[in-house]
Design goal:
Elements lengths: L1 H6 L5 H13 L3 H16 L5 H8 L5 H14 L13 H17 L12 H13 L5 H19 L1
Length: 156
């Protein structure tokens, strides 16, 4: 039945990123999806009203409300808030983040995402989910660029 469902829907960047994280760090696909989903809702809500529509079905009014409901559901079933809480070492994460991002961009599921992501956007979503924070995509990209500039200066 699951296979029938997958042939009738198009998946997006939640799955693209989850494939990379699960394969690299041995985490379950469902748990990783649950961590990624609220931030992907935030990201995709810039180009679609479907999350607002889903929020309204729950008696809420915004995509952010829906993202928070998904996050509450994740917590209620015992899935951690962040990828870091699953024991992924920060140095290992940082060393693999660009490769995770590149591979997520190449994953076929990315083609069906309602918003066409840029490398920096996927990387920012992944980093926010590693830390367990809600994403503000512009702020997250700026912070990632600042971190790279600091690291480059330290290497020089």
């Amino acid at each position: 039945m699951g296979g029938m469902a997958f042939t009738n829907v198009w998946l997006g960047i939640v799955h693209s990123m989850s494939h990379q994280i699960g394969g690299t760090f041995g985490l379950t696909h469902g748990a990783v999806n649950a961590i990624l989903m609220p931030n992907v809702i935030r990201y995709n809500s810039a180009v679609t009203d479907k999350y607002t529509d889903l929020a309204e079905m729950l008696g809420k009014s915004t995509a952010e409300d829906f993202a928070q409901e998904v996050s509450a559901l994740r917590a209620s079933v015992g899935v951690y808030r962040s990828l870091k809480e699953y024991g992924i070492d920060e140095r290992e994460w940082e060393a693999k983040l660009d490769t995770l991002t590149e591979n997520a961009m190449k994953d076929p599921c990315t083609l069906f995402n309602p918003r066409k992501p840029k490398f920096e956007e996927i990387k920012a979503i992944l980093q926010a989910c590693y830390e367990g924070t809600a994403i503000n995509i512009q702020e997250a990209i700026f912070q990632l660029n600042e971190n790279v500039a600091v690291a480059d200066a330290q290497l020089a």
